[in-house]
Amino acid sequence: MSSSPVMTVMINAVRKAARGVQRDYGEVASLQVSQKGPGDFVTASDKKCERVLREELSKARPTYGFLGEEEGGSKGQDPDHRFIIDPIDGTSNFMHALPYFALTVALERKGEIVAGVTYNPVTDELFHSEKGQGAFINNKRMRVSSRRTLQDALISTNIPHMGQPKMHVLHRNQVAVLQARTTGIRVLGSTALELAWVACGRLDAAWCDGLNAWDMAAGLLFVRESGGFVAPLKGEGDPLHTNGYVAANADLLPEMKKALAEAEKI
Hints:
single chain; alpha+beta; 8-stranded mixed sheet; 5-stranded mixed sheet; 15 strands; globular
């Protein structure tokens, strides 16, 4: 498929930054690791990857702003556009040489995500999408699964880590309710890839709380462009502007929302 100029820029930047991540993944035992907070680590590879992404994106779009996990936000001359970056989503997996992590970049225009790229450099799977153009994995069109009942669904979530004590009880209740209604629940460790996997039908649904925009920006677009739906855990609107999401096809989303609401009452 043909790509727009900005999508080409984003894909090229992600692939270039991934080279260093691939090298570090091969030498994971010798990585320099610093502790940002309880259970939340950042490696030298994270920081280096974000610098490369910013440099490459800035060369092609020098007026755009940035929002990134490691270096925070910076305003550009163009107030309508910014790149949202997570250099390594799934850092804990990366640190332990688990091949489930990704570089992810999204382009926001006037508060709306219009393009996204997520890349797992170990499996060489590149997920990408532009608003209104569909979503793709290595240039093959993605579609969400067609399962219609939760009892047939394989779903995913993330377990709250240390430093998020208020989430523990509610999350256990959510897991308990959905565990009794689904084929199974997987905890994989990368929100960016979980959303990409919902978009390509490997997972039927997913939910997560305690997130930042860079965790889910590209993935929310993937799900929408693959025929799926995303919603905040409570209420309506764009989950990008909340700290959590639920994602599924049209049949499963209401059932997921209903089950999560029931968990709130336990």
